[in-house]
Design a protein that fits this description.
single chain; 5 helices; globular
Length: 154
């Protein structure tokens, strides 16, 4: 069962598709979907919907988890753009037939994965899970961790 994790930003969306279990995760694909700069915002969101539908269909994804904006980040200048992207992501996942769609903030991801401690949970969780194929950007790590949280434990 493939699962997908997303982390929406103001200019791109990171996506990591995984298969396996939490104990033995495998990255199937990792993508950075950059919004086309030559399109107005409605066109960018339409483009994102098409990209997400294609990705979910190709990978036969059964569950989607996206890293939600933290409360403090939801007040910044990019908050509206990120919220729009999260909404389009949910819509596309629903249209693709995915029924397990949810968002998670750091605290709920930490709890779901059994981690406690500082915000460095991303590096620690990725390291302890030995998830090969996850790059160095924080956005990609958050997307991978969101996907990992959807994998079965065994």
């Amino acid at each position: 069962m493939a699962v997908a994790g997303f982390r929406c930003g103001t200019d791109c969306v990171r996506c990591v598709v995984m298969d396996g279990t939490r104990a033995n995760p495998a990255v199937v694909e990792s993508r950075r979907l950059r919004f086309p700069v030559n399109l107005e915002r409605p066109g960018q969101l339409s483009w994102l919907r098409t990209e997400v539908l294609g990705l979910l269909g190709e990978a036969n994804v059964a569950a989607v988890c996206y890293k939600k904006a933290e409360a403090v980040a939801s007040r910044g200048s990019g908050a509206a753009a990120r919220t729009e992207a999260e909404a389009v992501l949910q819509l596309a996942a629903h249209e693709a037939g995915v029924t397990d769609i949810h968002g998670a903030v750091k605290q709920s991801l930490k709890r779901a994965l059994g981690y406690d401690g500082p915000a460095r949970y991303i590096d620690r969780a990725i390291g302890e899970a030995e998830i090969a194929g996850v790059g160095g950007s924080a956005e990609e790590k958050e997307a991978a961790l969101a996907a990992w949280s959807c994998l079965p434990e065994a």
